[in-house]
Design a protein that fits this description.
mainly beta; eight-stranded antiparallel beta sheet; binds 6-O-phosphono-beta-D-glucopyranose; 290 residues; 2 helices
Length: 290
């Protein structure tokens, strides 16, 4: 089902037979909503988000591409999240191991003329957003080099999880990993052995994590499971009180209700030779927990 938002931009609604749903906007190829079969929203969007293109939208799952953060010459987090993507009406068939995700849409991004002035690399980014029979959200990205010279990029699925309260959540799967701390000039530290809990601003890139990371929410009694392939790094971000106040498109208290945990490839950018394709896969599930 395709509808238009108030700026005339198409949004695609995917729904499975149990009533779970995903809504993705052509603005940024950004997932804006993911609901379970009870209709509960699982992603955070700020009440102050600016939904008008080409602004980045604070919430859902913006895609940071071809640059993460300010690690390069492009605008913060690259341009993909601000561009208008198109629907591919004739997508390639599902791979046999995707047969559980019959509800899907393929979106495409190719560089606009102005993009080539700031990033002179022809690429095609195919994003397949799918909803499984169980209500899991999967995002499969294929980036192809259609140029005659190699290029490198970084990518992150900047996932804003909706949580009960930041003091009630913990992340498992990042223990003992090295991370780069964006709040300390990207200095490298090593995480200790405990699950991660939150008491202050966190802005880190955990390096080479295992392919499963879990976010436990005690109060809501639910756990988000993040499964990833081709995405070695994990970004963890919560702006906390002071930064929240400084962000124009974010409510002062909203940092309590969100936590960004992104599957990403940042530390070692991905290089594609002419004609080569990179594939990355993220699957998000939510399960009850005690
Ligand atoms: C995080 C970055 O991933 O995204 C932070 O590490 C940044 O430094 C945050 O503040 C939000 O970025 P933006 O551009 O969406 O405000």
């Amino acid at each position: 089902e395709v509808t238009k938002d108030k700026f005339g931009i198409d949004q695609v609604l995917l729904r499975n037979t149990r009533g779970a749903s995903v809504r993705v906007s052509l603005h940024g190829g950004q997932v804006r909503s993911w609901r379970n079969e009870r209709g509960e929203e699982l992603l955070f969007t700020s009440s102050k988000a600016n939904l008008k293109p080409p602004n980045p939208v604070r919430g859902g799952i913006p895609i940071c591409f071809p640059q993460f953060g300010n690690r390069g010459t492009l605008e913060q987090h690259g341009f993909a999240r601000n561009r208008i993507w198109v629907i591919d009406d004739n997508p390639p068939p599902l791979h046999p191991n995707e047969s559980n995700s019959k509800t899907f849409i393929d979106l495409l991004l190719k560089p606009y003329e102005d993009d080539l002035k700031i990033w002179p690399h022809s690429f095609e980014f195919r994003l397949r957003v799918a909803l499984t029979a169980e209500g899991n959200l999967t995002m499969i990205s294929r980036v192809r080099n259609i140029n005659c010279k190699p290029f490198s990029f970084s990518i992150a699925y900047h996932t804003y999880f909706s949580i009960s309260d930041i003091s009630e959540v913990r992340i498992e799967g990042l223990e003992t990993l090295d991370y780069l701390d964006n709040l300390c000039k990207r200095e490298r530290f090593t995480e200790q052995g405990d699950a991660l809990t939150f008491e202050f601003e966190v802005d880190r890139v955990y390096l080479s994590s295992s392919d499963v990371v879990a976010v436990f929410d005690h109060e809501k009694k639910r756990t988000f499971i993040i499964k990833k392939e081709g995405l070695p790094d994990v970004v963890v971000w919560n702006p906390w009180e002071k930064k929240a106040k400084a962000l124009a498109d974010f409510g002062d208290e909203e940092y309590k209700q969100m936590l960004c945990v992104d599957g990403a490839a940042i530390e070692k950018p991905i290089t594609l030779k002419p004609g080569e394709e990179w594939k990355g896969r993220l699957e998000l599930a939510v399960v009850p927990s005690s």
